[in-house]
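Backbone-to-sequence.
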């Protein structure tokens, strides 16, 4: 058996630190499970691991694309599975760490993509329709999937509407995407009481601003980047600030609100769609969580 470990959970819960600890303990390397850390120049806002945080552990699928380049879930699936195969070939444990639910599920589970791709005729037909209206359409048709996707990601909203139109009911209601692609997959989830997590999210956003998030966003804005990449939380709100729609204080508050909402959607996705072993994090004694997770993994990885 060739083991794979996945680490999931909401933003700001401590996934990065746990991934490094597991990789160091069990001879692994980290593979990013984030939808936006693949883009160069988007470091602060995506909470990309810093050199001093890696502990010397290699991290993969980070800084592999420019923000102007497209990167679909299907592209991610191929890249991650290729990297996992490469690591297995070297006898290295792949540790997939991230909070982008659909991306992690697509890579680690038997997730197949319906149809031949996006329906360009729909793009033309809805060019003048607001994202809010499209989201409301999806919410009426499939509330659970709408909740998981969120109201701001126009590309994924349209993609799901395409799937709903093209897939048979049995495709949508089957176990598709719930069976592990890797027989020896272990999913570890980190959770935290909501009020504590909300405080950590607020602190993280403030720290990002101190570390230069506005300057990072301004550099992309001045380059004329208007792609899907800058629809990530933190970027889209500050783009609105630079467009004159929000004051800086309003933009920062919106980042905090949207981050809390995203954390809720993350927990919904991981709880409902994956078999995850959950561990509650005490941020004051995070090392206790690390030891509990490693003890749990020890027996499994020794098989």
């Amino acid at each position: 058996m060739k083991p794979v470990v996945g680490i999931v959970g909401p933003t700001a819960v401590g996934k990065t630190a746990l991934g490094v600890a597991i990789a160091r303990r069990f001879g692994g390397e980290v593979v990013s499970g984030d939808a936006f850390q693949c883009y160069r120049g988007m470091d602060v806002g995506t909470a990309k691991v810093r050199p001093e945080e890696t502990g010397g552990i290699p991290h993969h699928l980070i800084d592999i694309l420019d923000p102007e380049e497209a990167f679909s879930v299907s592209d991610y699936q191929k890249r991650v599975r290729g990297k996992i195969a490469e690591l297995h070939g070297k006898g290295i444990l792949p540790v997939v760490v991230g909070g982008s639910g659909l991306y992690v599920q697509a890579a680690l589970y038997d997730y197949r993509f319906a149809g031949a791709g996006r329906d360009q005729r729909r793009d033309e037909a809805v060019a003048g329709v607001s994202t809010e209206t499209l989201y409301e359409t999806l919410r009426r048709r499939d509330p659970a999937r709408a909740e998981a996707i969120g109201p701001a990601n126009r590309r994924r909203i349209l993609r799901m509407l395409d799937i709903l139109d093209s897939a048979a009911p049995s495709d949508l209601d089957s176990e598709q995407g719930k069976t592990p692609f890797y027989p020896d997959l272990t999913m570890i989830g980190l959770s935290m009481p909501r009020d504590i997590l909300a405080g950590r999210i607020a602190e993280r956003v403030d720290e990002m601003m101190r570390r230069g998030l506005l300057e990072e966003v301004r550099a992309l804005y001045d380059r004329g980047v208007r792609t899907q990449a800058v629809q990530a939380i933190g970027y889209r709100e500050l783009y609105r600030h630079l467009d004159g729609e929000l004051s800086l204080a309003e933009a920062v508050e919106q980042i905090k609100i949207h981050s809390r909402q995203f954390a809720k959607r993350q927990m919904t996705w991981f709880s409902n769609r994956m078999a995850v072993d959950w561990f509650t994090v005490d941020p004051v004694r995070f090392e206790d969580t690390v030891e509990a997770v490693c003890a749990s993994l020890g027996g499994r990885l020794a098989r």
